[in-house]
Amino acid sequence: MAKNKGTRILITLECTECRTNANKRSAGVSRYLTQKNRRNNPQRMELKKYCPHCNKPTIHKEIK
User: Fold this and answer.
1) What pTM was computed for the model?
2) Distance of alpha carbon 62 from alpha carbon 44, whole angstroms
3) Among candidates 8, 61, 6, which has minimal Cα distance to 36?
């Protein structure tokens, strides 16, 4: 028997300032992997996390 999908899914959070910031410390885009509960948070998540490329805490948004 096949199991149903759980409520927790893996999502990727990407830095919003790395795409437009020309004064970055290093090349690249900061990404974090985390989980979210699809029943409690049906919309896309935004978290403030540390970006090693921008060298400061920035807003990271959920991407597909």
Assistant:
1) 0.78
2) 6
3) 8
